[in-house]
Design brief:
The chain has about 700 residues and is α/β, with parallel strands linked by helices. It has 17 helices and 31 strands. The protein has an eight-stranded parallel beta barrel with strand order 12-13-14-15-18-19-20-21. Helix 10 crosses helix 11 and helix 14 runs parallel beside helix 16.
Amino acid sequence: MAILPERLEAGNSYPLGATWNGLGINFAVFSRHATRMQLCIFDSSGRREVHRYDLPERTDEIWHGYLPDAMPGLVYGFRAHGPYEPQHGHRFNPHKLLLDPYAKGLLGTLKWTDAVYGYRANSPRSDLSFDRRDSAPAMVKSVVMHDNFDWGDDRRPNTPWRDTVIYEAHVRGLTKLLHDVRAPERGTFAALTHPRLIEHLKRLGITAIELMPIHAFLQDRELLQKKLTNYWGYNTLSFFAVEPRYLANGDANEARMAIRRLHAAGIEVILDVVYNHTCETRETGPTVCWRGLDNASYYRLRENDRRYYADDTGTGNTLDLSNPRVLQMVMDSLRYWARSFHIDGFRFDLSVTLGRENHGFDSGSGFFDALRQDPELSQLKLIAEPWDMGPGGYQLGSHPPRFAEWNDKYRDTMRRYWRGDSGMRPEMARRLSGSADVFGHDGIRQPWASVNFIASHDGMTLQDLVSYSRKHNEANREENADGASENWSGNWGEEGPSQDPQRVALRERVKRSMLLTVFAAIGTPMLLAGDECARTQRGNNNPYCQDNETSWLDWKLARTPEQSALRDFVARLIAIRREHPVFRARQFLHGHHQLAPGVLDIDWLDERGERLSPGDWDNESGRALVMALAGEGTEQAEMACVLMNASDTALDFHLPAGFGWRVLIDSAAPETMPQDISAPTYRLADRAAAIVITTLGSRKDQLQ
């Protein structure tokens, strides 16, 4: 390490974080309420603090200083001085080393000792007490990074929303058992570049992979004590650094290379990001970054008692994006991932929290306004998880026009219909047609805003939905109290795996029927990684702490004849969706537009081929439904009928007369290839779905 000067130069207040300019490093960190800010420099191992500087200048609440001749790779942290008054929201403790909120590289891992808490652990005064032990020996350190990656001719695929098919996956879980990859690279970004994986995604027809959190995250002390780990990663330690465990060689360029190769294959990369809370949890949590820098600015505190946090996230704390500097941090983080990693979009965990102002959720909040006007970020794919745990926390359909939203109403409706619940026809029609009742009320949003899915990381897998009638989360060591109690699942007569051939065949048929309705529905389809090859979590619907075979995709299973057939069925569904634009409507359809005599843009029929009457819609025992879509085709206008039979007997479906019909796919006969139908009826097995199609004439004959 070069000889360090006695004092820092003034430097600049922008950009925030540690920035190397070729001659030295500028440091800038926000704190409104601190009275003094110190920069701590460590040796390359991070074990020894070699110098401590006061940041000499403060401009508009930004503390800053410049260290000449310093180079990338420098290891550092901050210490913030100020009042320790938890009852007033202030928790400054200069004995605690703090991460730079803008750190792009990390060194080491947090060692859980009582020294990482700002208060004396086990004190009768709890967090009102003050701890004077130095936390530096136990702390992870910040590292100065410099982006030197050559992107070459990389281009974002820019897949239109209406053509998008999303694959939700976990970097580690997707590749940990991929034995085509060298053992040290399994479970890392290096494995995402393997031709075997990219071939799998391309064969399915996936256009975008949505990765669960890759921001560096903290391992919860409570989980480690139970000999469990935080697997999902919704426990952010740094909004700018890649989780070190996902890098085989420790270099963030490994992630950039994976993204570049996915782009070359035409696959977009969407990140699941967690800007609603941090890893510091409630008031009795550790002091590792934001709490020690300026607790009262970074977090929402209770109005009537500022010692405690407003917990709208269910995790103990809530970031306050109504504070301009906190909002700036989030926006800077998003731009960093978009620019430095060429990310194609973001899925916002608990997005309602991000839109909270002092009066509650607001679709015109500062965060949404900043995002929508940003010339770069506004052009990326933006996906909301439209709920949180706070008051008025369910906001499906209330996000701004640029957003798509996870549609849990679609998820629950499909599960209930295929389970055989009564009275589901009206709700099925609303969800299959793009949920216009949710997203079409302002006349601005389009059907792609509805992200349609049967399963996601949060809940049961598709295989478990047909194998378990209740959750089995005992392995989480929370006495099976965690996770949703109602999954709208069914075991079809036997809990768990079955050796009964008839029961297995029924389960497989129901799975295929569910998948068919995902890809035939209007909206944006999303597939949970592994559902195409029957991945099971053995009934666990909340495996957030299961970094093991419970959560990992078993690629050996994926290669069995049975699961290869399921994968091929999914690929056929996606191909049908891609080849027939009628399933990718540009606008919401309401049955008001007639394309040919008696042919509406969308229509609803029963198995008799008759349009449903009000009495039919109200018939709770009716479990057969036909969605007839008519519109744009590749060469000619088309009409496609999605036949659905959730009853326990086979039914003869009468098809609209006067057309020559062709069956494209049938969940009860997955091996059957497309073929013409000679009879005016089509027999559909119980718990089955099929797609039949006909042409209406050339495009020039379509009515406008």
